Amino acid sequence: MREINIYNLQLMDFELFLNVAKYESFTKAGERMFMTQSRVSKRISIMEDELGLRLFIRNKRKVVLTPAGRILARRLRNISDDILNAIQEAHVAQTGMSGQLKLGFLEWGTIVFMDKLEEFRKNNPQISIDICRSNFSELRNQLFFSRMDIIFSTSYDSCQLSENEYLFIPLKEVSLVAYMSPKNPLSHRESLTINDLRSEPLLMVDRNSSSGYGEYIHGLFLKHNIHPLISRYAHDGGAHIGNLLLNTGILLASEVFLADSWQTQISRVPIQDETVTILAVCKKQNNNPALSKLLETFGYNKTG
């Protein structure tokens, strides 16, 4: 029998393995554990090498457990639950606090807050985290009706919310970027100005989904006495992927919008001297102690 070495594995790897087995997807397991798809794939490969087992059959649509993987998953589930429950109980005994957090984010959100959330999760395993991805109008409604503790959004979307009722925590300043087909002649430029887009058709987010986005884009063009040329509307930027691939127009969005996706099919050119602030937004009257703990991780003392 092959000698098994687990010294290079972490408890997180076994939990990650169980999540990939549950969702049959590296991407969905990564979202659950706040990791990128590439990191999930790397950790699973390391686990397979260390254990000397092929755990998954990979194809384009999903990943499926091998017979060896099914046995390992079945035996690990109870062990993993016992270990995590023991750690959670120990943390509750030490801190006297447990709880639940509900977070919402746009499709780019994990890029910005993933590291901090991983830190929070590691230091507070007794706090349960539910996280969902949605468009801004849905996130805003969830926050308004207190179904969400905190959302991660952009400065132009969040301007619709009242500073008297909501807390805005800036997380990162990022560049405004023009997304376009490589067939567009502007795609070969190192940077662009708003004036360069004077005659370019724009892909916009509709007002019902984000009135802040439309006001922001129109404001940028009005500063240069330009009326933007609108090509298409959609409910969010992701819905414009097909239009970008077909060279129907240019989409203006933050540099973290597509992350590492569509690298060769969609070009990215930064807009000179224009930035977008990524924000964490929560209600000032939210007294969830778990939220206060999370805000401390982001460097903000809610009671201070």
UniProtKB/TrEMBL annotation:
Keywords, in A-Z order: DNA-binding, Transcription, Transcription regulation
Domain HTH lysR-type: 9-66
Gene3D superfamilies in the cross-refs: Periplasmic binding protein-like II, Winged helix-like DNA-binding domain superfamily/Winged helix DNA-binding domain
CDD domains assigned to the protein according to its UniProt record, in alphabetical order: PBP2_LTTR_substrate
GO MF annotation terms: DNA binding; DNA-binding transcription factor activity
A matching Pfam family: HTH_1
GO cellular component: protein-DNA complex
Keyword Ribosomal protein among record annotations: no
InterPro entries per record: LysR_HTH_N, LysR_subst-bd, WH-like_DNA-bd_sf, WH_DNA-bd_sf
PANTHER family, per database record: HCA OPERON TRANSCRIPTIONAL ACTIVATOR HCAR, TRANSCRIPTIONAL DUAL REGULATOR HCAR-RELATED
Family: Belongs to the LysR transcriptional regulatory family.
Name listed for the protein in its UniProt record: LysR family transcriptional regulator
Organism of derivation: Candidatus Eubacterium avistercoris
Lineage: Bacteria, Bacillati, Bacillota, Clostridia, Eubacteriales
